[in-house]
Structure prediction request, 277 residues.
Amino acid sequence: MKIGVSSYSFAQLNKAPVELVALAKELGFEAIEYTPVDRETALRLREESERVGLSIVCYTVGADFLKAESVEAEAYRLHEQVDIAEILGVDKMRHDATGGFSPLRGSYQGFDQALPLLARGCRMVTEYAAAKNIATTVENHGFFCQDSVRVASLAGAVNHPNFGVLIDIGNFTCADESPAIATGNLAAMAKHVHAKDFHVKPGTSDHPGEGWFQSRGGNYLRGAIIGHGEVPIRQCLGNLQRAGYDGYVSIEFEGMEDCVTALRIGRNNLERFIKMI
Prediction:
């Protein structure tokens, strides 16, 4: 496995995306991935990455097939993002299936009722991307489509060889699911991986204050440096390796510490964990 970093991890620096390429290289990362950019920026990022010698490994964008004007409208919007992924030169793109805590708020429908709509939208996007040799994925992200069983159901419903899962090791805690068990459930479907760590406190305790948010079940979470939190990173990586995953693992840091220091420590810890499995 090779170690990458998401541009999202540098958010507190407020730097232009192109400035992050050299910084990521300096910190020892082998690849970087980007959150949404426009076409002009995408071209500049590709040129800078080639100059520095740092791969761009994935393009990560938001989406919500349930709150959009229509499934088709959201899919066509994502086609434009696939075009940007092509400019970046990546072979993988991640988009959400839904956003927010309860995308069907007010209608009280469950995931099973939403699944056909989500699958139709994801399939429209992956069929378009397949013609450009870009695999598409959904991540365990956004509360509603976050549990491993729901993500697996969506992948099965899309049923397309170009479509798979971006496993975020830490995000399962947002749905109060064991990261190790959930990663094992989805490992065979993984096309890309995010390494993320969280400090976790039970919801029965008092609110810890600034920097913490609550999981779907009411537990308290705060972003952590890789190796400093409660997510069993090494065990999750072992589950992925046994399933045959040998691609990139990109760090997403969203903690309160200085991000450059956190990423330096986190990268070193992640490298050590990979060597141990």
Q: What stands out?
A: The first strand starts at residue 2 and ends at 6. The chain has one domain: 2-225+232-276.
